[in-house]
Every structure is written in structure tokens, then in C-alpha cells.
Amino acid sequence: xxxxxxxxxxxxxxxxxxxxxxxxxxxxxxxxxxxxxxxxxxxxxxxxxxxxxxxxxxxxxxxxxxxxxxxxxxxxxxxxxxxxxxxxxxxxxxxxxxxxxxxxxxxxxxxxxxxxxxxxxxxxxxxxxxxxxxxxxxxxxxxxxxxxxxxxxxxxxxxxxxxxxxxxxxxxxxxxxxxxxxxxxxxxxxxxxxxxxxxxxxxxxxxxxxxxxxxxxxxxxxxxxxxxxxxxxxxxxxxxxxxxxxxxxxxxxxxxxxxxxxxxxxxxxxxxxxxxxxxxxxxxxxxxxxxxxxxxxxxxxxxxxxxxxxxxxxxxxxxxxxxxxxxxxxxxxxxxxxxxxxxxxxxxxxxxxxxxxxxxxxxxxxxxxxxxx
Length: 373
Known about the structure:
By secondary structure, the chain is an all-alpha fold. Helices cover 56% and strands 2% of the residues. It has helices at residues 35-41, 44-53, 59-71, 77-85, 92-105, 115-140, 154-163, 169-182, 189-198, 204-215, 227-233, 240-249, 267-283, 286-303, 310-319, 327-348; strands at 22-23, 29-30, 33-34. A three-stranded antiparallel beta sheet has the order 1-2-3.
């Protein structure tokens, strides 16, 4: 009988821990609530509260939560100076990773890993990350930062700080739904990285820095930045079918399709697709939605591959006039709620995450003296 542990490349299908935060079984649910219902009936602020505190807030709890978030929407002056001093070519996600590291030095709870302290830190990061993204973006354009509006909810305030003008209710709703759908997704790569980091009894800020590093990759958060490249490269509705078939024949990877755990399609993609089309109609870019529909059809027919959330998200953000380099940082300002919830859950009942590897190197050797080698 073999004593070699079972091996699954990429840990596919491996159960690596327990969580009460979300499940993808029978559709994605956060703390028991289907994401479809959350995106229909809630704003992101309510969902962030749900992830951090375990259930949806009542009106009083939501108001107090939003007041705390609004109060924390500010950056220490040295960090603002750093964001202004970064080279213009600095990627927004790299700037955000550095911002989180700097914010740790100004958070007096940083070294306190108690449940309550981590909740306080999580709320502050939830408030500060959008400010860091918006400030860095504007600084990189030679513009002045825009002060946060305390009366605006999370998504609406971010769009205001980014643009310097208040978004329409339709834009806010579409953007808010994208944040809700990006907020949490079980043991994905960035979340698992965050849990692994704090399993050593490290801290929340370190975990979020590591999670952002994992999110940067094109196979995780960076995929949404490639969507419009795919759609535009197809040449439009008239050529999209042949272009897709040719790309598949060349064995090219088409970003925005396929998912490690969703083999029959990502429920989140179906929810956001409606908002992407509505935004494109308002922006006068419906051609790209029609092109995307053709690519979807060919991918389903030829490869039985279906869109993931990044596919409509990249198109929605394009229709909203947002620049591609901030698409993944937008993912981060949402997912920090999920990351933080997982960090808190991990530390509340911690066990060091330390898997084994399957050795495939040389057999045992004997070391010869230097003169004999």
C-alpha cells in the first residue's frame, strides 16, 4: 500500500480548510445569501458588513457602519506624498500594494490580532483602499486629489473621487453590483494567500499586501484588464466568429473564459452582463457587446467554455469610461472585504497552513570531498 499522499496539480479539487463565509455549491452564496439576491436588493456597503460581521445589517447598524467608513476615508500625509512621488509608469495595483504596506505603519492596531482589532483594521482598509486608488490615479494624470464625500456610499464615493463629478444612479448601481460580485469567492488564489500569511500569526496588512500580489496575475485579477483587448482584437461583429475560431486553432488563451470551479458557467457573469449591456447602450458602444456575444457563442460551441465574471466586468468598466489600469485595483477595493473576513476567520481558529510537496528530484546522493568532484 502506497504511503505517498494524493497529489492534485494546482491543488484542484483539494479541500484545504473550512469556511463559513461563502460557498460555490449550488450557486455562489455569501453567508448563506445568494449573490443574485444580494446584487438585486443590497448595496455594496451592506454586503461588506455581511462578510465582516456575519449577517446583513439593519438600518441602524448600516448607518453606523457607513459613518465609521466615511470617517476613515483619509490617508496619512506621508502616504499622499509617496503616491505623488511615484514614477508615472507605476502600475496602479503596485501603488495600492505599497499604500497598504505604508498604512500599516500608521495603524495603531496593526500588531493586535484580536477579533475586534481586526474588525477595526478591516473597516479602515475598506475605507482607505478606494482613496489610495483614486488619489494615485489623479496624481498620475497631473490632477489634484478629490476629497471624499461622507454622505456617499462606497461605490458612489469612489466614482466621485476618481472623476471629480458625481455618477448617475444607473452608473452607481451597475458599479455597485460589480463590487458585490467581486467581494468574495471562497478559497481563490489571493484569499488563500492571505489565509496562509496570517496562519503564521502575521497581521492583516501583511495578508492584504500578499493578496494584492496574488491578484496582480493575469490568471486571477488581471484578467479583467485583458477583456477589451480580446473584444477589440476580434475586429467587431462581422469578424468575431472567424477570429475566435482562428485563435482557438492557434491554441491561444482567450481571457475572460473558463474557471477552475465553474465548469458550466459563472453565475456572476450572467448577473453583470445585463448591466454591461445597459451601460454600453448609454455609452453608444453596443457594437462591442454584440461582438462579445458572438465570441461567447463560439467559445461555448467550440470549447464548451463559458464566461467568468471578468468578461462582463471589463466591458462594464470600459462603458463607464474607466481606464484599464484601474480595473484590477477596483477588484481589490471590493475583495478587501472578503480577504479581511477570511483573515479574521483564520485567526479566530488558527492552524498553520503548511502543506507537503511531492519530491521529483534526484535520488539520494553521497557528498564527495571537493577534491574528488
